[in-house]
Amino acid sequence: xxxxxxxxxxxxxLVLGLLGLQxxxxxxxxxxxxxxxxIEARTGLVVSKLDRxxxxxxxxxxxxxxxxxxxxxxxxxxGQALRLKARARILSLLAGRIDFDRIDLVSPQIDVxxxxxxxxxxxxxAPPLDYLQGLRGQSRIVIADGSIFMRAQGAVRTILRDxxxxxxxxxxxxxxAVAGSLNxxxxxxxxxxxxxxxxxxxxxxxxxxxxxxxLQFDGTRSSSPESTTNGHLTLSTPSLPDLLGWFGEAPRxxxxxxxFNLSANAQIRPHDTALTNVVARVDDDRLDGALNLAMAxxxxxxSGTLAGAQLDLGRLVSRMDTAGLDGSPGAAALPFDAWTAExxxxxxxxxxxxxxxxxxxxxxxxxxxxxxxxETGILRANAYGGSVKGRLLAVTTPGGIDVxxxxxxxxxxxxxxxxxxxxxxxxxxxxNLQLSLDGLGRSLPEVIGSLSGKISLxxxxxxxxxxxxxxxxxxxxxxxxLALRDWRQGRTAFETATxxxxxxxxxxxxxxTQMAGAGYRLSLFGSASLPERELDMAAVLQPATGALRLPxxxxxxxxxxxxxxxxxxxxxxxxxxxxxxxxxx
Length: 585
Known about the structure:
The chain is mainly beta. Among the domains are: about 255-450, no CATH class; about 455-585, no CATH class. The protein is built from 10 helices and 31 strands. The protein starts with a helix and ends with a strand.
């Protein structure tokens, strides 16, 4: 080829290239029907309207539609986009047909019709997954800066914003692969999904990365005889209540859990998920076992068995939402419906457990919740040389919430317990405590005001610190005028201490309550108002033999009562001065 011919050939190619790069506007009515049909075949969406179509041939054949309206044939998925861009395959064009390997939806607003009764993420995602599974194949679909509206009978149920997703190209038997990012309920989220859409078995993976959730799942899915997915699941969240709130759930009991991590083998069916080989971390405590989650008639059910080396149960209880448990007069009704909104059957055991300072060993606990019924308790626990058991049951009745509380301590060393529990710090000795209470009401004050039952305490071979009743008795027998000096210091050793109380309509009445030691006996009698949390009691200190009696009064708030000597209640020599009030703190 001569130099002149080469220049002419290169010039011709350059002109053709420039012409190919130029977008040529044509009327929408003149867009060939097979181009629109090709878009429908590779997306499953019918182009229902457009303002303008542009075609460019070089460097790659492509079509651009402006202000596009589209919909699935059954109307379940529809929407509009600022622009639809489709890139044609060159080999297909050379073969005389149009096919696209990539279709971009720019700034689309997509409407997805969901069932009116749907209220969860899985229900909302089912229609678009069904739509994609129904395609015989698809081009790579890119959604850029879009929004997806889930609507039920025209009402918006939820919105996915800032949607930037890539759906990989696939043929009829290939799995659906989706990756990208979106913003749901104000939380930016990155997702990646591999979902089999054909055949009886296929690999399934899911990855979710958001501030509230890190989730990984890798397994297989089969559709026969029912849709079942098996695989390994890992999940972590800095706050379980916040995570559930993100999904629109607010179970009251979930407030007990802070940081939560889970690793398990999962079997997922339409309304049931079984987790085995569970390793759950609640804050810093590890629990192993099995769990099952199910949904029936819109009600969540959680059941399972977990065991661990240690668990801080007190920390969990302290986080609980106690709204409605204000014991002051006029408090609101107990939110019992919220407390029993889910079905729960959990059995948790731990080698060591802490409960508001108390240290328990070899503990087995349980939690049973049904609609209108709440039950929890300690089936067994070793504590301070003895054992502990307890049960709380609350049931809805026409008259309010029927509450039953039963508990007991057996052969517990109160001196050892006092090192961890300040309320027992003054007391030592080994003994038993039994209580049985019943109450009925719509608020906590009503329940307390209706309480009836019994409480009994028995101790042996112990001491009461902060008081010297034995020394006081001996001095009073020798010289009553000096009896009240320094009796508020020291210790009082006792051989036995017993207390028995009956409770009727919130009023506790003592009977047969006394402490006895070497040369003395202290008797206590009177009553306490549980609703008012006030004591009105009297005590008498007297020798084991003899007629001398030293009277005291015990009055004031239950938490901080005042013990006061009552000199006017006894015959005494002139000049004996009564004791000043002594706070029991």
